User: What shape does this take?
Amino acid sequence: MKNKSVLEAMTKEQLIELLEIYSKNWLALDGVWFQSIEEKFGMDEAMIHDANAWKRFTVIEAKRIKDFLGLSDHSGLEGLAKALELRFYGNINNYEIKLEENKLYFANVDCRVQRARERKGMEFHPCKQVSVIEYEGFAKTIDPRIKCECISCFPEVTDKSVCCSWIFYI
Assistant: This one.
């Protein structure tokens, strides 16, 4: 049986702060398992496992958010915009979403993963390979008609004003 009384007794501000803590904890777990494989077997091996994990996780995350929002199977770019805002790291990364002319632009202005690696003196995570899997899988779970293209993502950075950027369209 779940004991919700602790959460029910919290204020809205406390719950929002706890959500941020949970998001940071999840992201930390994602980072430490990756770094464990990276340290023992190298970046290439870690990227294989990262891709496999994200291929499965992004669908789980998108389905739960889609259900939470009550989105239809064809909720389009408007539904995707709402869902992207509720991703587990949505409240801890600085991002921008713009919906214009049948296209949705999404950019992580500042990325906690890359900043953490930078602070530790590590090379940047070559995230494009895995992020394509992540963002395509998330978008297609929200609406199977949605296509995704990378504009800029490490190591193929074309826009230094953001950590990564993406375009979605139907």
